[in-house]
Specification:
Chain A: The chain crosses the membrane at residues 20-39, 45-65, 72-89, 95-116, 123-141, 161-182, 211-230, 242-261, 268-286, 292-310. The complex is a heterotrimer of chains A (316), B (321) and C (503). Chain A is an all-alpha fold. Chain A has helices at residues 14-34, 41-66, 74-88, 93-118, 122-140, 151-158, 166-184, 186-196, 198-203, 208-234, 246-256, 268-287, 292-310, and strands at 146-147, 160-161, 164-165, 236-237. Chain A has a two-stranded antiparallel ribbon with strand order 1-4. Chain A has a two-stranded antiparallel sheet with strand order 2-3. Chain B has a single domain (16-320), classed as ABC transporter involved in vitamin B12 uptake, BtuC, CATH 1.10.3470. Chain B is 76% helix and 1% strand. Chain B has helices spanning 3-34, 41-66, 74-88, 93-118, 122-140, 153-160, 168-186, 188-198, 200-205, 210-236, 247-257, 269-288, 296-320; strands spanning 162-163, 166-167. In chain B, α2 (41-66) packs across α8. Chain C has 503 residues and is α/β, with parallel strands linked by helices. The relative contact order of chain C is 0.11. The chains are: A mainly alpha (316), B mainly alpha (321), C alpha/beta (503). Chains in contact: A-B, A-C, B-C. At the A-B interface, α5, α11 and α13 of A face α5, α11 and α13 of B.
Chain lengths: 316, 321, 503
């Protein structure tokens, strides 16, 4: 066989790469011009508080998608956390935080083991907890909505630090940690290699199973943090409604941010931008008195366009 | 091949084909012995009537999953179908059935076409459809504020009347399930469904119209979900707009518990029927134990699902060796 | 009259000329052997003949008429059937359903007539010596029976041409006899057969004519009976038996091993299911040991088994005197084994990542402190290897998927070398790369051996294998059938050993 060309030109892929930023800019310009009270501190604050939990969950989802996986159980993790918190809050907020994180670790270990050890497709592996996890949470909480009165937890969800909500600080920290993990750590690079070509990563001697399990644990832990903060924000724990359909919002943020579902690449900032864009779309439509029905249909269309654009074509 | 391996393989086949039926039989026997209220004919009727809409959804889901796909939009389509049927009932019996089927079938067509022609993953396409159909439902019901009341007596009778002591909709669902069995096991389309899920490449080489088959199963799934909503509206007398019905998850759980491989290529409608009834009976028992939280249902579904899927994976692996 | 023929056909894929001006003709009733090593262009030619690919140049003629098939289905409808190497049926469906898929007999109601389908399936299969429950899942049948079903499937649809791609590779001797009976029958009915196989005995028993491809080019076509076995093997592997030149074609310089060194790699009694049987050999530091044999002899499996990527039932592997028990890929890399797999794109490079990430992949722990990667350390290593291997790229951040085959291979080799291995396992290191890169890679292998590494080399290029290796272990059907040492390491004796072994 003879080699004919040295390089093949890359397909122009500006849309998945920069489309999300352009769309955000366009929406901001539009709102600044036409939507009253949009560019006010109080509005920005509300938008940030609303988008922060989605960002936290989406970051974990981005890592999982980077390994060519998917995690449908993130909403169930939030529900489980919401159910567990009232049981342990009596021992103080630290205990509640620890229990929440442990719940995340446990779910992540189950998902990770099913994917890495048993060898199930990720969508199938996480389906069981998607189906049963929320039910378990509601069973634990006995189907009751419990008010949260613990000041420390309320501070985590609703308080301010240096004039910015703790929730937003936490999301910012999560962004930094995940970005740093993907770019600078051994784990991050292995994760991308596994998503890019799993058989090759195995032959190169990477601890594939360990990395995969860790990814699912990280994703579930991030979801647990989002659940904890959401409980603190709403100041009540309702296992049947918290984080409902957040897996959809998280996957949307990831794919709108230009991370392909085929793995091997994680766009951390793109994911954040994806979450922000969807939040802006919703906010814009609400402010312009468009009904929720329209919002949902527009969201559905955006998801399809984003997935279609980010679809990796077979290079050769 | 050793005797042991053959025995294991046989056990594997049997488990996959009749596992749900066996568990169903055991659960029913225990229930008959332990719960006096379970024995009444009324209770049996209650179980069957409650199982009717989920049965239709699971029937469509069986076709989809056998092709190796998944349809997450059926819960939304179920709600949408109910609302559309109630709204359309003011224009007569035919409209009450035709409108929801047309709209839900069209959304199924859209799902199928996107999956077959763009190669996008079924779960993401149907997840978007879940959202889109929910939006459409809200748009039809004035953002959920209007609850349409069924205005056609014939249509209402479809849901509430009975024949030979068995509810009309149970008859209807039984007929459709039987039709579904014939279609899946005795038509070229049915064979194509198995072939596409078993090996898409081989199917294409042997002349199966892969795209048309894929589109077909999503249309079927959409139609059946819409019909499920329709008969539920006929029973309730109104189109309920409750969100997050989670019907898609129950349907997937029932199909998988019934022995259909989530990886595609194998499964039976008889298994799905057993799966749906098993979940229905469990729900019924949970209700009988009064103080038990009804959400145990979800927990049990999830646990069954995990168990069956893991067992299937090991059985398939066993068979390869 | 010819039944099916192509004239001057070429097919180019990005980066590769898979077929170069190849002509081929099949007459009715002829059994035509198509032979060549991996990458010779056999499968591309078959795919052109059966409508999977459309040729870039050249003409396809069927029954004297120029034709162009849009899909494999078109070819099949016209009467050209193919039986693929890995049985291309649907294992989860019943035997009868497979046989009749898409053309099921129907009752007056339009339903599938199962009784008739099963009855006909039983009758048809009986003609192929298969007596089995036609309602059983195809996957539950032995492979041989599955192959027969595939054959029945292919012939059933009124075929005029049947293409068989290694039909006997999974058959037992008795099943092979049945197959030959069927082929004889087809031959008498005037059906043309294209027969791809590497088993010399079979070819000489049933084939009338032979076409040999190498590197996408036609190297010989004619009556098989007129062609000596050794010459057939020589033509396949790219070496004229009568024309052994002193200086050779490759840049290898010779042996670097000191005879008294203890082996850096010792393999003994390696067995795996029914693919590898009791394989033993050793590699001393500085030595290049070649693994010879034809396609399917077990070369790649041996390499993968040593690297922990292929299941091993019995046998021992020692690296530098230390046993490697229950090898996994992680343990193998840690023990100093580096493997370059045969399929570079599927198992070697990570196309979406940069050159830099690909090279550093296996040594990340060494390039980091407390899990944090040091870019400075990586840059140093990457720079060193890019220079040493003369990797041509826009820079270390270029995507590996965008590089040429030769440079991709060098990136892969750089990753192996970066681990500081004791043993290099190279599976077809120069396949699919251009001439210049080929020479560079060969020189590199030589150089590495000189530095004291133990190298195991698999190559379908007889020239490369003989000149690159100090010793050649010849495999056949997963077992060692001969070892060439010293002055015996020549193409003649390699070809003789392979041909003798019957292949």
């Amino acid at each position: 066989m003879t080699t004919l060309t040295l390089t093949t030109p890359r397909r122009a892929d500006w849309l998945p790469k920069y489309g999300v930023y352009l769309a955000i800019a366009a929406l901001i310009v539009y709102n600044a011009a036409f939507t009253p009270y949009f560019l006010t501190v109080s509005n920005l604050r509300i938008q940030l508080i609303q988008v922060a939990p989605i960002i936290i969950v989406a970051l974990g989802m981005a890592l999982v998608i980077g390994t060519e996986g998917i995690d449908l159980s993130v909403g169930a993790v939030m529900a489980l956390v919401a159910a567990l918190i009232p049981l342990y809050l009596g021992y103080g907020v630290i205990a509640a935080v620890i229990v929440s994180l442990l719940a995340g670790v446990a779910v992540g270990l189950i998902n990770g083991a099913l994917v890495a050890k048993v060898g199930l497709q990720p969508i199938v592996a996480t389906l069981a907890l998607f189906v049963g996890g929320r039910g378990l949470a509601v069973v634990i909480s006995d189907g009751q909505l419990k008010d949260i009165r613990n000041a420390d937890l309320i501070y985590l969800g609703s308080g301010d630090l240096l004039g910015i909500p703790v929730l937003v600080w936490t999301a910012a920290l999560a962004i930094l940690v995940v970005a740093f993990t993907v770019r600078r750590t051994v784990f991050g690079r292995r994760l991308l290699a596994i998503g890019g070509n799993r058989p090759a990563a195995e032959l190169a001697g990477l601890p594939v199973q360990r990395v995969l399990i860790t990814v699912y644990v990280l994703c579930a832990v991030l979801a647990a943090i989002a659940g904890l903060l959401s409980v603190g924000r709403i100041q009540s724990s309702d296992a049947s409604s918290i984080g409902l359909l957040i897996e959809l919002s998280a996957i949307t943020a990831v794919v709108v941010g230009g991370t392909p579902l085929t793995g091997g690449r994680v766009r951390v900032l793109g994911t954040v931008a994806g979450a922000v864009l969807m939040q802006l779309v919703i906010a814009t439509m609400i402010k312009n008195n468009l009904p929720p029905s329209t919002t949902e249909m527009v969201q559905a269309a955006i998801i399809l366009v984003a997935v279609y654009a980010a679809r990796e074509r077979k290079t050769r | 091949m050793t005797v042991l391996a053959v025995a294991q393989r046989r056990a594997g086949h049997a488990f996959q084909r009749q596992g749900a039926l066996a568990v169903l039989a055991v659960v029913v026997l225990i229930a008959l012995a332990a719960f006096p209220n379970f024995r009444s004919p009324d209770n049996a009727a209650t179980i069957l009537v409650a199982a009717a809409p989920p049965m239709l959804i699971a029937l469509g889901m069986t076709f989809v999953i056998i092709t190796g796909g998944i349809d997450l939009s059926v819960g939304s389509l179920y709600v949408l179908g109910g609302v559309l049927a109630s709204w359309a009932s003011q224009y007569g019996f035919v409209a009450a059935i035709a409108v929801p089927l047309a709209v839900c079938g069209a959304i199924g067509l859209l799902n199928g076409a996107l999956i077959a022609y763009t190669g996008m993953a079924p779960f993401i396409v149907t997840l978007a459809a879940l959202l889109g159909a929910r939006g459409l439902m809200r748009a039809v019901s004035d953002e959920g504020s209007t609850t349409y009341i069924v205005q056609n007596d014939a249509f209402h009778t479809l849901g509430t009347g009975s024949l030979l002591g068995i509810g009309n909709q149970v008859w209807l669902v039984a007929i459709i399930v039987l039709l579904g069995m014939v279609v899946l096991s005795r038509t070229r389309f049915g064979n194509a469904v198995y072939a596409v899920g078993g090996s898409e490449d081989a199917a294409a080489l042997m002349g199966v119209a892969v795209r048309r088959t894929r589109i077909g199963v999503y249309v079927l799934s959409g139609l059946l979900a819409g019909l499920a909503g329709t008969i539920n509206a006929a029973k309730l007398g109104s189109g309920v707009t409750v969100l997050g019905a989670g019907m898609e998850l129950d349907a997937i759980a029932a199909v998988v518990i019934g022995g259909t491989l989530l990886t595609g290529g194998a499964g039976t409608i008889a298994g799905t029927v057993a799966g749906v009834l098993l979940l229905g009976v469990i729900q019924n028992l949970i209700n009988q134990v009064g103080d038990l939280n009804s959400n145990w249902q979800q927990v049990i579904s999830g646990a069954f699902l995990a168990l069956v899927v893991v067992a299937q994976t090991y059985l398939v692996r066993l068979r390869r060796t | 009259m010819t039944l099916l023929e192509v004239a001057g056909v070429s097919k180019v894929f990005p980066g590769v000329r898979a077929l170069d001006d190849v002509s081929f003709a099949l007459r009715p009733g002829e059994v035509h052997a198509l032979v060549g090593e991996n990458g010779a262009g056999k499968s591309t030619l078959i795919k052109v003949l059966t409508g999977v690919y459309r040729p870039d140049a050249g003409e396809l003629r069927y029954q004297g008429e120029p034709v162009s098939f849009a899909t494999p289905m078109d070819a099949q409808r016209a009467g050209i059937s193919t039986i693929y190497q890995e049985v291309n049926l649907i294992p989860l469906m019943s035997v009868a359903q497979n046989l009749f898929l898409g053309r099921e007999p129907r009752t007056t109601l339009g339903l599938v007539d199962r009784a008739r389908m099963d009855r006909e399936a039983r009758d048809i299969l009986a003609g192929y010596g298969v007596t089995t429950d036609v309602r059983a899942r195809l996957g539950s049948l032995p492979l041989g029976a599955q192959q027969m079903v595939a054959l029945a499937c292919a012939v059933m649809i009124d075929a005029k041409v049947v293409v068989m791609d290694e039909p006997t590779s999974s058959l037992e001797p008795r099943e092979v006899e049945t197959l030959f009976g069927v082929i004889q029958d087809l031959h008498e009915r005037g059906i043309g057969i294209i027969y791809v196989s590497h088993r010399m005995d079979e070819l000489y028993r049933i084939c009338d004519t032979v076409t040999i491809l190498r590197d996408g080019k036609l190297v010989h076509t004619g009556r098989l009976a007129d062609l000596e076995r050794v010459r057939l093997v020589a033509l396949m592997l790219g070496r004229e038996v009568s024309d052994v030149r002193r200086e050779g074609f490759t840049v290898f310089s010779g042996d670097h091993a000191a005879a008294d060194d203890t082996p850096v790699l010792r393999v003994s009694g390696l067995s795996s299911r029914n693919r590898l049987h009791d394989i033993s050999f050793g590699v001393r530091p500085g030595e290049v040991v070649g693994l010879g044999g034809l396609l399917g002899a077990g070369r790649s499996e041996t390499i993968k088994a040593i690297a922990g990527a292929y299941p091993v039932d019995r046998g021992e592997i020692e690296v530098d005197g230390a046993p490697l028990r229950h090898p996994t890929t992680v343990k193998a890399v840690a023990a100093g084994i580096a493997v370059q797999p045969e399929d570079r794109k599927a198992e070697g490079i990570i196309p979406g990542l940069s050159i830099r990430e690909n090279i550093a992949l296996s040594i990340l722990p060494r390039m980091s402190t407390f899990g944090l990667v040091s870019d400075a350390k990586i840059d140093e290593v990457v720079d060193r290897f890019m220079k040493r291997l003369r990797i041509k790229a826009a820079g270390p951040h270029q995507r590996v998927g965008d590089l040429s085959g030769g440079n991709q291979q060098k990136v892969l080799l750089a990753r192996l070398l970066a681990t500081g291995p004791k043993v290099l396992l190279l599976d077809e290191p120069t396949r699919g790369i251009d001439v210049g890169a080929k020479a560079e890679v060969q020189a590199l292998i030589d150089e590495l051996a000189a530095e004291g590494l133990g190298v195991v080399l698999v190559s379908s290029d007889a020239e490369e294998l003989v000149e690159g290796s100090g010793r050649v272990v010849v495999l056949r059907d997963g077992a060692v059938v001969g070892v060439l040492t010293g002055d015996d390491v020549t193409t003649e004796s390699l070809l003789a050993t392979i041909a003798e072994a019957g292949a």
